[in-house]
Design goal:
single chain, 8 helices, globular, alpha/beta, six-stranded parallel β-sheet
Length: about 200
């Protein structure tokens, strides 16, 4: 079943960002832009993802568009990097459970921490933080939105942060955001572009 497109969809491969744009950048775009080993994940990104999102972010940064992040971006980014680093390790050393990998391999843990720190330092260098508040009001709104839009838990709180910051533009490959009205979704996700 296809998603119902409610957002305005912009093909970022044909768009030229400018200094009036204010973009929240979703974690997948940060991952492909700042983590050089992203292509080694078991569910590795497609070539268009590794090419188009970093290029668009560079163009947006060069055009002096405002790029935004939030603390949940770090949580997702750290999770994805640790998962990928474990997958790389497993391919050469055999299977190990995530908790064992995290707790029992200090050299690998140091590598994971270094990768996360390097990626996050790049994100912080080019993007401004918007506040994510997880309180009774935001959780109530997230629960309400959970029934309205097919977003995961992180995305529900990111949507709340965007609304509170007055941001309607998002750079993402995640088609779930395309179901949210009043957003402008900048993407090169072919499924979303074809549905739009």
């Amino acid at each position: 079943m296809a998603a119902t497109i409610r957002a305005q969809i912009v093909d970022l491969t044909t768009d030229t960002p400018n200094d009036k744009d204010v973009f929240f950048v979703d974690t997948n775009a940060w991952l492909w832009t700042t983590y050089p080993r992203a292509g080694l994940a078991s569910s590795s990104p497609l070539s268009y993802q590794l090419r188009n999102y970093p290029l668009y972010l560079a163009n947006a940064f060069g055009a002096k568009a405002k790029l935004l992040r939030c603390g949940l971006s770090l949580a997702e980014l750290a999770h994805l990097i640790e998962k990928t680093e474990r997958e790389i390790y497993v391919r050469t050393h055999g299977d190990i459970k995530p908790k064992e990998y995290r707790h029992n391999l200090p050299v690998e843990r140091s590598r994971v921490v270094a990768e996360i720190q390097a990626s996050w330092a790049q994100v912080k260098m080019i993007a401004t933080d918007i506040e994510v508040i997880v309180d009774e009001a935001s959780t109530s709104s997230a629960i309400n939105n959970f029934g309205l839009y097919p977003l995961d838990g992180y995305d529900l709180f990111i949507l709340e942060a965007m609304k509170k910051a007055g941001v309607a533009q998002i750079i993402t490959d995640d088609g779930d955001y395309a179901t949210v009205p009043d957003l402008q979704v900048f993407t090169c996700n072919r499924n979303v572009l074809n549905l739009a």
